[in-house]
Amino acid sequence: MSFLLPTISLFGFLARLLASYLSLLLCATYGVYASLFLRLLGKHRLAQWTVARSFDLVMRYATGVRFVIVEGGEHLTSKRPLVIIGNHQTELDVLFLGAIFPKYCSVTAKKSLARVPFLGWFMSLSGTVFIDRVDRSQAMKAFEGAAREMREHRQSVFIFPEGTRSYAREPLLLPFKKGAFHLAVQAGVDILPVVAENYSRVLDVRARRFVGGRIRVKVLPPIPTKGLTAADVDTLTLDTRQKMLNVLEEFARDPGSKAVLKASAKKVL
């Protein structure tokens, strides 16, 4: 019967993939109506938080995958505006956001996503900061607008500084783009790094493997930017990346990672 294992594994991959996209579509549709309703109440800045929480809940049951904050969760309850940054591994990071997303926070996203039905509508209505990766001047204007929003409305912003998914099978980070760090310095707010352990044994797109499991997340202490200028951004970027990489490597060395993977393996369809 061992010859059936690849077929069973592929079925599990496709089933969870379909469940993920249907869950995202469901929550994005909910997000459109929630954003409109909250806008009428003057509470539209809560739209992304409420949709993130709903997606986290739906995905737990649809796929058996759960991101769990194991340290530093208290930093996400800060009433100060923050530039929150996280490592970007796969499409599953939408669920990563669902698990850690605080109130009064907006995501950044590439401009092309604004044209995606339902998801783009929700993102536009809920205050997403769209970044034009082709036109640098437009990207800078978007960050300037985000900095004003942070100062005037105490709104936090979430950014993936790698800019694209790594699809890494080991604990690594792609080079960081500097936009998040320029934004933090310009707005005079702290940077809050959030790190999810490498979860390639839960989702590996190239190997067509997608199983249930518990993925650990650590929230690092806020990094102050008060008194810093644009001249400090290069050092700030490199230092922050190294701190996050250290956490990724610590997760890999921690025997707890093996326990997570064993629990995941039992959930293969």
UniProtKB/TrEMBL annotation:
Domain of life from the UniProt record: Eukaryota
Catalytic activity of the protein: a 1-acyl-sn-glycero-3-phosphate + an acyl-CoA = a 1,2-diacyl-sn-glycero-3-phosphate + CoA
Pfam families given in the database record: Acyltransferase
SMART domains: PlsC
Enzyme class: transferase
A single GO BP: phosphatidic acid biosynthetic process
NCBIfam families assigned: AGP_acyltrn
Annotated protein name in UniProt: 1-acyl-sn-glycerol-3-phosphate acyltransferase
Upper classification of the organism: Eukaryota, Fungi, Dikarya, Ascomycota, Pezizomycotina
